[in-house]
Amino acid sequence: MNEWRQVAQLVGVHGIRGVLKARLLSDFPERLTVPGPRWLHREQTGDPQPVTLLKGTAQLAKNLFLLSFQECQDRTTAETWVGGLLLVPATDHPPLQSEEYYVPDLVGLRVVQQGEMIGVVVGVVAGAAQDLLEIQVGEERKLLPFVMALVPEVDLAQGWVVIDPPRGW
After folding, report:
1. CB neighbours of 114 closer than 8 A, spacing ≥ 6?
2. Tens-digit pLDDT profile for the chain (169 aa)?
3. In order of start, what are the domains of the chain with their CATH numbers?
4. Strand (E) positions, the chain?
5. Cβ contacts of residue 69 below 8 Å, gap of 6+?
6. pTM of the predicted model, to two decimals?
7. Which of 66, 92, 81, 58 is nearest to 14 (CA)?
8. What is the 8-class DSSP label of residue 72?
């Protein structure tokens, strides 16, 4: 699945015309509102299957999207899609602003502190104020706020991040 980015989880059916409810799994909601090709991955069918998004509407009060697909025109078909993931190719991504990164690009980076490699980024945890880097240091996993003061340098090309954690981290 490394060649894919998850953009939504299909969580339910809306009505009888094949409309699906989806929970956004991306920082780019336009991936669920702009018509075009997407891929559906369901455990029972194996490889992702191409589908065409016809329309997507945000239901902000419920934190969901209502999605219509060319290949799904009735409730019976929609019910078989529930639980599936909506994907886009990993190479298909909106441009990022300076100092923005895709989580899969950060996972696996070496972590350097005072010129010495001390661990590896194993995840990113979404936080209320800022995201947290999850770093494997020996047998321990530590969290570090992903802010410029504590993570002053990220070099994706070289495969590392420099950290300057607070004392006692």
Report:
1. none
2. 568 989 999 999 999 999 999 999 887 899 999 999 999 999 877 889 999 999 999 998 788 999 999 999 999 999 999 999 999 998 887 778 888 887 878 999 999 999 999 999 999 988 778 889 999 999 999 999 999 999 999 999 999 999 999 988 8
3. 4-89 (2.40.30.60), 103-162 (2.30.30.240)
4. 4-14, 19-24, 36-41, 49-59, 64-69, 85-89, 110-113, 116-125, 132-137, 140-145, 153-155, 160-162
5. 18, 20, 51, 52, 53, 54
6. 0.65
7. 66
8. B
